[in-house]
């Protein structure tokens, strides 16, 4: 779980919402939604190579997010003027890094789910074996009593 949290922290640092002096960080689901929105917005920018309208960019980044997160995005965009100043090469590199981080989170999440399922499977097997040992022990006790 620690590796998932550290991966999410790395992902947060790549989002335009990330402001170091802000005490509150995005929740896991808000981080993933913001990252998906950001990848979509950056992909559209790369596809069209047209200068970005900050209001439209803010609208794209805010889809499905809470009002608090929208406010953080607006603040971050006002502080950084992020997209309009990026070169095309830098945008592609940034998008690739963000996509790779999302993939790593997905992989870590999948691995933790698989580990949990495997643990549940092993516990089920242990429980079944313990139950059969108890039944076997009860039969042995009945035979000894006779």
Automatic annotation (TrEMBL):
<dbReference type="InterPro" id="IPR036638">
    <property type="entry name" value="HLH_DNA-bd_sf"/>
</dbReference>
<protein>
    <recommendedName>
        <fullName>BHLH domain-containing protein</fullName>
    </recommendedName>
</protein>
<dbReference type="Pfam" id="PF00010">
    <property type="entry name" value="HLH"/>
</dbReference>
<keyword id="KW-0812">Transmembrane</keyword>
<keyword id="KW-1133">Transmembrane helix</keyword>
<dbReference type="InterPro" id="IPR011598">
    <property type="entry name" value="bHLH_dom"/>
</dbReference>
<keyword id="KW-0472">Membrane</keyword>
<dbReference type="InterPro" id="IPR050359">
    <property type="entry name" value="bHLH_transcription_factors"/>
</dbReference>
<feature type="domain" description="BHLH">
    <location>
        <begin position="1"/>
        <end position="42"/>
    </location>
</feature>
<feature type="transmembrane region" description="Helical">
    <location>
        <begin position="107"/>
        <end position="127"/>
    </location>
</feature>
């Amino acid at each position: 779980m620690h590796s998932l949290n550290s991966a999410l922290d790395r992902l947060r640092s790549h989002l335009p919402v990330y402001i170091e002096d802000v005490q509150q960080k995005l929740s896991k689901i808000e981080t993933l939604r913001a990252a998906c929105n950001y990848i979509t917005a950056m992909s559209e920018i790369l596809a069209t190579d047209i200068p970005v309208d900050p209001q439209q960019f803010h609208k794209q980044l805010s889809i499905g997010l809470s009002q608090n997160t929208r406010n953080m995005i607006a603040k971050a965009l006002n502080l950084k003027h992020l997209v309009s100043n990026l070169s095309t090469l830098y945008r592609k590199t940034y998008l690739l890094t963000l996509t790779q981080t999302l993939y790593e989170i997905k992989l870590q999440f999948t691995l933790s789910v698989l580990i949990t399922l495997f643990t549940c499977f092993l516990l089920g097997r242990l429980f079944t074996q313990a139950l059969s040992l108890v039944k076997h022990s009860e039969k042995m006790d009945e035979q000894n009593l006779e």
